[in-house]
Design brief:
With 212 residues, the chain is mainly α. Helix content is 77%, strand content 5%. It has 10 helices and 2 strands. A two-stranded antiparallel sheet has the order 1-2. 42% of the residues are buried.
Length: 212
């Protein structure tokens, strides 16, 4: 069976009905958790774990929480950003120390092509690759692991993570806060488009800076 993670929509799996059902139930549990009285703590835990190993992206919890409490949108986005960056540190060290053990897992869950893309981006863009990773639809955990695997300098990795993750989560919170249920209900459809649009803008900026 092959499972491919799609940001904000969990996993799309072909074959292996039991595993596909497991991921669907896991995704549904995350959505339900957004209404829990300890939702902010659960959001932080989700954002932390998603940056290194957990399959469900925090957007699916951030969006309904923002819709329910729009006056706390920026607080929820800040929690998600900080926890995601700290989780990215774990992913970095996992990649630095345990890459060989991880490669079979990356291939099994359909992450390997995304990993090679991340590795190529690091060779081409360096610091900018982490910033791109923070907003792109490619699973962020793949970039954190790849950054450690290629021994990217740690401080640029952290700086790119803060900017990239911050842009993504504050954008999601801001759009849900401004547009309400219209955007929240279609987040799964729009998040990929928004992510790639931001990536395109950043790539253009990089190209302009390199030509100057």
């Amino acid at each position: 069976m092959r499972c491919v993670e799609r940001p904000a929509s969990g996993f799309v799996c072909s074959g292996g009905g039991a595993r596909s059902l497991m991921f669907r139930r896991l995704y549904d549990w995350v959505v339900r958790a957004s209404g829990h009285r300890r939702a902010p703590s659960l959001l932080a835990l989700l954002a932390f774990s998603e940056s290194s190993f957990f399959p469900i992206p925090p957007d699916v919890m951030l969006a309904p929480m923002t819709l329910a409490r729009p006056e706390r949108a920026w607080w929820f986005a800040a929690i998600t950003t900080v926890a995601s960056v700290v989780g990215g540190m774990l992913g970095y060290w996992i990649g630095a120390l345990f890459l060989d053990a991880l490669l079979p897992w990356l291939k099994e869950l359909g992450y390997y092509s995304a990993y090679t893309t991340a590795r190529d981006w690091f060779e081409t863009y360096g610091f900018w690759a982490v910033l791109l990773a923070g907003v792109s639809p490619i699973p962020y955990k793949v970039f954190t692991v790849a950054a450690g695997a290629v021994a990217m300098p740690f401080l640029p990795f952290m700086a790119g993570s803060i900017v990239g993750r911050g842009v993504r989560f504050f954008l999601v919170a801001g759009l849900v806060r401004s547009l309400g249920p219209v955007f929240e209900q279609r987040l799964l459809k729009y998040i990929d488009w928004i992510g790639w649009a931001i990536v395109a803008v950043i790539v253009v900026v990089i190209a302009v800076l390199q030509l100057r």
